[in-house]
Specification:
Alcohol dehydrogenase. Catalyzes the NAD-dependent oxidation of primary alcohols to the corresponding aldehydes. Oxidizes secondary alcohols to the corresponding ketones. By secondary structure, the chain is α/β, with parallel strands linked by helices. Helices cover 26% and strands 24% of the residues.
Length: 381
């Protein structure tokens, strides 16, 4: 029996209010409208950004209201398509994207950026193009995080925010390319353009930072220093390419001073993967003058970074990256190919696997630093 054109009742993890555990509920997912695709989500990850928005400040709540289905790093299978959809068919394997690529606007046509703004204003506040969500619970609209909401067994996304991937790709691995790994890896190879034999420092060794380490390794950097206050992550960093690791807590001087000394004058590339303005400043100041490059990959929405003008005047470059600089719809399938061809690691990032009804445990392990990524299976095994 086909479900196309019908409302689907399924399970989802709902954040009814900030600061409280998610609740597993029966939700109704409406059919897709024009230029929308309904997908069956198979696997999703719990990202630091999900954690941040579960524990919202009142300031942020004005922009992303509750109740909310979080999740923006997932992979699944097309269940049905709405009118005017031409690039997807039921059965396609896909990765939903929080960053669109319409392929029509000036930004999509430009090689200088990946920041398409199709449906952007709406998805940032949890709704789709018509101003409503496709998910409801107990007769109430439930907002979709970044237009995705992968913590639901079914979700509906715009067709410009969806990457079709090869049919043999394992969804329980490639879901990582929906956010963390793509962001960190791209920060190094796409945005920063790390060069062979260079000296690099990666600040923060979560999923994004470890992927940045992997990117520096792929670019054949000579020195790759991983930096984190959690030494339990050092072994994984070394596995992915770090040549050494540093715990700032072990020094009585600033971490930028430590890195400048270790690199004999400063690193060529610093990649900030924490989302802390103080760490961003430290990353910039750890680079060598004249040509040092600092790439900010960590997300921060409400704070300001302190930049000494002299640090820029002396020739350093400060850059930001969003989703690693990748053109989402066209580049994610290439990253999947790289994984399938054994030139990109993903398995090493998955430290835990849990069913949907234990998703709060995944948040706990993320917060206490014992996990890199937990793969959440949305369907019984």
């Amino acid at each position: 029996m086909t479900t196309a054109g019908q409302v689907i009742t399924c399970k989802a993890a709902i954040a009814w209010e900030p600061g409280k555990p998610l609740s597993i509920e029966d939700v109704e997912v409406a059919p897709p409208k024009s230029h929308e695709v309904r997908i069956k989500v198979v696997t999703t990850g719990v990202c630091q950004t999900d954690n941040e928005y579960l524990y919202e400040t009142e300031q942020r709540m004005k922009f992303r209201p509750f109740p909310l289905v979080l999740g923006h790093e997932g992979a699944g299978i097309v269940e049905s398509v709405g009118p005017d959809v031409t690039k997807f068919s039921p059965g396609d394997k896909v990765i939903p994207l929080f960053l669109p690529q319409c392929e029509e606007c000036d930004r999509c046509r430009s090689p200088k950026t990946n920041q398409c703004r199709r449906n952007w204003a709406n998805t940032q506040v949890g709704v789709l193009a018509d101003g409503t969500s496709r998910i409801s619970c107990r007769g109430q609209q439930v907002y979709q995080f970044l237009g995705v909401s992968s913590f639901s067994q079914y979700t509906v996304v715009p067709d410009t925010s969806l990457a079709k991937i090869r049919p043999d790709a394992p969804l329980d691995k490639v879901f990582l390319l929906g956010c963390g790994v793509s962001t960190g890896y791209g920060a190094a190879v796409k945005t920063g353009k790390v060069e062979k034999d260079s000296k690099c420092a990666v600040f923060g060794l979560g999923a994004v930072g470890l992927a940045a380490v992997m990117g520096c390794k792929a670019a054949e950097a000579k020195t790759i220093i991983g930096i984190d206050v959690n030494p339990a992550r050092f072994e994984k960093a070394m596995l992915l390419g770090a040549t050494g690791c540093v715990n700032p807590s072990n020094y009585n001087k600033s971490i930028q001073e430590v890195i400048v000394e270790l690199s004999q004058g400063g690193v060529d590339y610093a990649l900030e993967c924490v989302g802390s303005p103080a760490v961003m400043t430290a990353a910039l100041e750890s680079t060598i003058d004249a040509w040092g490059v600092c790439v900010i990959a960590g997300w921060s929405e409400t704070e300001s970074m302190n930049v000494a003008v002299e640090k820029i005047l002396m020739g350093r470059t400060l850059m930001g990256t969003y989703f690693g600089g990748w053109k989402s719809v066209s580049d994610v399938p290439k990253l999947v190919d790289a994984y399938m061809n054994n030139t990109l690691k993903l398995n090493e990032f998955i430290t835990h696997s849990l069913p949907l009804d234990r998703i709060n445990q995944a948040f706990d392990t993320l917060k206490n630093g014992t996990s890199i990524r937990t793969a959440i299976s949305l369907w019984p095994q």
